[in-house]
Amino acid sequence: MKYELVSGLETHVELATNTKIFCSCTTEFGGDQNTHCCPICIGLPGTLPKLNQKVVDYAIMAGLATNCEISPISKMDRKNYCYPDLPKAYQISQYDMPLCKNGYIELSNGRKIGITRIHIEEDAGKLVHQRGNTYVDYNRGGVPLIEIVSEPDIRSVEEAREYVEKLQMIMRYIGVSDCKMQEGSLRCDVNISLRPVGQKEFGTRTEIKNMNSFTFMEKAMKYEISRQADLLDSGQPVVQETLRYIVEEDRTESMRGKEDANDYRYFREPDLVTIEVPAEKVEKFRAALPELPDPKRHRYIEQLGLPEPDANLLVKYRKVAEFFEAASDGVKNPKNVANCIIGQIFRRVENEAQKEAFEISIPPEYLRDLVLLLDSGKIKMNLLKSTLEKMLDSGKPASEFISENDLAGIDPDTLKTLCTQALEQNPNAVSDYLGGKEKALKSLLGHVMKNSRGRADAMEAEQLLIALIRS
Amino acid sequence: MSISRDDILQIATLAKLSVEESELPELTKDMAQMIAFADAINAVSTEASDFDNINGLVNVMREDVVEPSFSRDDILKNAESQDDGFFLVKKRS
Amino acid sequence: MQTSYSQIHQIRQLLDSKQLSCSELTQKYLDQIEALNPSLNAYVKVTAEKAMETAKAVDRKIADGGHILPLEGIPMTLKDNISTSGIETTCCSKILSGYTPIYDATVWELLQNQNAVLLGKTNMDEFAMGSSCETSCFGGAKNPHNIDCVAGGSSGGGASAVAANLAAFALGSDTGGSIRQPASFCGIVGLKPTYGSVSRYGLIAYASSFDQIGPITTCVEDAALVYDAISLQDSMDSTCRGGSPASHALKDDIKGVKIGIVEEYFDGVRDDVRAQINEAIRVYESLGADIVRFSMPEIKYGLPVYYILACAEASSNLGRYDGIRYGYKTAHYDNINEMVRKTRSEGFGKEVQHRILLGTYVLSAGYYDAYYKKAQNLRGMIVKSFQNAFQNCDVILAPTVPTTAFPCGSAIQDPVETYQTDLCTVPVNIAGLPAVSIPCGFDLKQLPVGLQIIGNSFCEAKILNVAYQFEAAARTSSFQSVNMGVQL
Q: Is residue C226 part of a domain?
């Protein structure tokens, strides 16, 4: 039978605050085990949580950036479960009054994935199992998280990936998280169920926990979809359960035994007071949000006339977009700036982390000044390219590499002389060209460009060469 | 509400307490007595209350400023078992 | 030989006038503790060395003419659920045996800043769950008025120590009556402050939305003095906003003050206790107060509401004792899950396990609405009912306990029956209000009877003023100190 995927995601995003959610210990990643700890985050008897204002602020920003309503009143609750990585035996989280709700994210295919809620909570510590012994490190315990819960609106593995990528992009844009999957600062639980195409009711779902890479998420989803399809095809029921994905064997397996039936016994956290977010505060945050990737992309295409693929590449990283915008300020054709960034500059920032940081040797104004020279016809594209390379190598402005002489351009007489010289010095190339080898013309052109030290306009020179050969 | 042996075992599992078979009859009796005591509130009808936290405070929060953590020796000081800076739970004992 | 209590202002005067050095004074207390504690079992730990160290520092400061603070050099105790850095803090539970905090409770930090002399940690019901002090893993504290009777609970050790002149004051904690009830049983003064006026940071939690630290003293003036010293806003406790000073208001005239008498507080109160309370009401009438009588039907549900909500919170608060980070850990197990379960079952006493189970039950799926949620609604109704009451009166007078101190061993036999002891004390915790218990006479067996004065939120000054006026008018007939301990 043909099935349709119904999937929803719970995404945990570690917030980029300086301190933990309920104490003033650092959130820095790494660090020797149990050195970022205090009585509060190891849950010593008698300690009380102190809520970090920044966590609330960041969650509000995340909510606004994903089209959520911000709750004017919310509170913290205790989620009770006993596990060695949870020092108080309860996680302080939000149950029935989350900070944000009813948002969405729009995918490139135009479908909107609903966001049910975003709430704040604390992370657990880390367990290391070795030879059956358990070693506990509470450095991560109490690091602030937001949990972003989506509606079961996702219909394909590709949509799931794009949804997470978009979340990641947005969270980075607004600066609330670095969303590094490999460091665990973005992790997903994926709910999966299948239903026969055309059926309205949802099937029984399973939940794959803790996906921390796009590749594994896709693989795990594909595996689970085919597992469920096989079960349904053979008339067996899907059991509602929590699964883990085993990377080495590319399969999922059940995480919990029956004896640990979960009953979190949520109740209000009595040690913390009500959180009120006045409407004025929400509006202040809304006004302070940066332009988000989607509107930015539309603007690049509609107003700056960039082709869609270029716009996509530029908006993916906030710093790249900022560089582009500064460099194209006042430029006639922003496409020229885009070409410089996507071509020459991107060759120098290869991986994702480098693009995210986008540390370039020149400020965007240097690139703008260079492109303005092109705009005004003072230099040609090939001089622009070679100059940009020199600028990137040295971090110096264009004026260091382009002389008054260069800016003067090349007069028609000189160009004609250079072309004639090229023909005279390369009789073989001329005869090759006449013999039908188009390529030979390029070599002649190369000579002209070289001898003009890049000042000649390649198009002009090419036409002149053809004219001279034929004359 | 009445409470059965199985209820007790289920609650004990949630509460991470181990209950010996021999303790069950007396524990079931004690719990039944406590629950009967709690059941007194069933007699009264209540409207949903807007009862909030007990002293009505809102938005008590702190600034996001790092303070030094405690020394690891202090953090591990009260642990029965530790190894290489970790809290340790041996497989069995 | 009739003796008198050692009040803070007397000690202050002796120290400041250099008639007695703080070292001599502290030594007297330590000697008496050594002599009497074996029979009273009030202290579970004596911190002699540290006490003498502080005393010497106080002596130096007095000799140097330094600025002397109100509690400087005053010998005192802390209940064993108040965290003291470097000093074992066990909640009188096996599960915290050997646990030495690495930080100080805020109240202890405040008292240390005043150089109060800590004599030791005092006995309590395990995790403050009990009304007799007998669920302590060290055995119960005895009542100095009759050592065959309990000191009360849960802060029984502190009350016993103060009543027997083994400390000038004690800090206890009150979740459902744990300061007021033992103060009543031991014939002394116990103040349960407004929820949120004293920091709970470092108080090992029983029920977080009920717990509050307060003073146990021999007179109202001392209670006000200690309350003023500890009721400060604290950034470590989000629910704490501090209180306003009460010491200055004690001598105000109470003519025309409206005193509420609530019918339901007298349900099931023993006749000889009721007689003493009625006598106290007459004293107030003679002082010019107006008596207003009314009914508050909602408080009848106080006990089950309290037990449901407090146990629910306790079941969560006590989840952390798993043997991994601190405290007792079972010797034999085959896997982590078994380790945790055995540790908890061996480490917690019976009453504590009962309350954890009840709390887990009322929060669990299927029972939450019928118990926890309903009790929470009732809590809201009780809060409102007090708000209405305080439209009609300034304070409410009630017995602290329907009875007086009961014989040792009787509470253990019938725990649920013992819950009834808390009938008159729990409504105040449910509503987060302040209340003070002061002695108002004796029953037929010559055991002390306590009078409870309840006020609106943050009205400590008012209830202490009303208490002080009674004390001034009736002290000779209603207070009787015991013939033991330190005599000044």
A: yes
| Set of chain C residues whose Cβ sits within 8 Å of the Cβ of A272 | 238-239
| C295 domain residue, yes or no | no
Closest Cα in chain C, distance from residue A270 (Å)? 5
Q: Does residue B37 fall inside a structural domain?
A: yes
C193: domain CATH number is 3.90.1300.10
Which chains neighbour B (Cβ–Cβ under 8 Å, 3 or more pairs)? A, C
The angle formed by the CA atoms of residues A310, A315 and A320, to the nearest 5 degrees, is 95
Q: For chain C, how many structural domains are there in total? A: 1
Q: Which residue of A has its CA nearest to C312?
A: A267
Span A161-172, pLDDT tens digits = 999 999 999 999
- SS3 (DSSP) at C396: strand
For B34, the domain range is: 5-43
Minimum distance, in Å, between the CA of residue A244 and any CA atom of chain C: 20
With beta carbons less than 8 A apart as the criterion, state whether C107 and C202 touch: yes
Residue C79's domain spans which residues?
Answer: 8-250+429-478
Nearest Cα neighbor of C321 from C342, C344, C338 is: C344
C-alpha to C-alpha distances, A410 to A390, A403, A419, A468, C50, nearest whole angstrom: 22, 13, 12, 18, 94
ipTM above 0.90, yes or no: yes
**How many C-beta atoms surround the C-beta of residue A438 within 10 A?**
8
What would the pLDDT profile of C59-94 be if each residue is shown by its tens digit? 999 999 989 999 999 999 999 999 999 999 999 999
In a domain, B88, yes or no: no
B29: in domain:
yes
Taking the C-alpha atoms of residue A68 and residue A101, their distance in angstroms, rounded to an integer, is 5
Total domain count, chain B: 1
The helix/strand/coil state of A91 is strand
Smallest CA–CA distance, residue A272 to chain B, in Å, is: 8
What pTM does this model have? 0.91
Decide if B69 and A274 are in contact by the 8 Å CB cutoff.
Answer: no
Q: Give the domain ranges of chain A.
A: 3-284, 291-406, 412-470
Instruction: Provide the CATH number for the domain formed by A412-470 in this structure.
Output: 1.10.10.410
Query: Which residues of B are less than 8 Å from A54 in CB distance?
Result: 63-64
